[in-house]
Amino acid sequence: MDLNADLGEGFGRWTLTDDQALLACVTSANVACGFHAGDASVMRRVCDAAAARGVRIGAQVSYRDLAGFGRRAMDVPAAELAAEVAYQIGALRVFAEAAGASVAYVKPHGALYNRTVRDDEQATAVIEGVQIAGGGMAVLGLPGSRLLVRAGEAGLTAVEEAFADRAYTPQGTLVPRGEPGAVVHDADEVVRRGVGFAVDRSVTGADGRRISVVARSLCVHGDTPGAAALARRVRAALEEAGVTVRAFA
To answer: How far apart are CA 154 and CA 84, in angstroms?
Structure first.
């Protein structure tokens, strides 16, 4: 099981994620590319640190929404979105390659991630952006999402992702953040859910029933309070359960 976290979610003097501590335990780093968080200095610093630790670098692309941290619903024309996705990947690639690494995958953030679960036009635009940026990168998304369907059709590697610290609807999608219980705050429960995804391929949904979730990558949000300690616990529990923690193939 791959273990990923959102990194580089700072801007100027403002910092949010404990990048160094998270890089010590994750296998893939979703690096903010400047549209919801991050700037040139932050991207360079995170890429240098990730490359030094052998952590895979991914571009976490977003709607252009610094003020809303990329979590506000936006209507962006498809052509514009494709260009902006390519722009973000290109910006991160400069720093990844300077560090002796590469941008191995792309993962939408926040509102864009959720929008591409069902919105075919926006999902297609994201994939077009990946192709404009040169293709060859994997795409992380929710199992069954339009994003992963379009990635597969485009010949890109589609990687299914699960969230240890988010609640699930009976349909297998994420409970919207504005609803009660959308984020799982109990650390023990987050750890249990993480192991459940890897071992049982399932999770308990918001209605109490078990939901099948087949995923190759597990996310722990970097902006969660105590995220680094939580990620360490999740990794330790996975390894104790006999799960090999490594970057997805």
So the answer is: 19
Residue 219's pLDDT is 96
Ranges assigned E (strand) in 44-179: 56-61, 103-108, 138-141, 158-163
AA letter at 64: R
Q: Are 111 and 53 in contact (CB under 8 A)?
A: no
| Segments of 142-201 assigned E as strands | 158-163
Dist CA 97 CA 217 (whole Å): 24
Residue 165 near residue 190, CB atoms below 8 Å: yes
The Cα–Cα gap between 150 and 127 comes to 7
Alpha-carbon radius of gyration of the chain: 16
CA 181 to chain centre: 20
Q: What pLDDT score was predicted for residue 89?
A: 98
Where would I find the H helices in 156-220?
Answer: 187-199
> Tokens at residue 90, please?
């290109």
Residue 159 pLDDT exceeds 80? yes
- For residue 223, is pLDDT > 80? no
What DSSP designation does 17 have? S
Query: What does the block give as tokens for 176?
Result: 């919207």
For residue 222, is pLDDT > 80? no
Three-state secondary structure call for residue 24? coil
Q: Cα separation of 129 and 186, whole Å?
A: 37
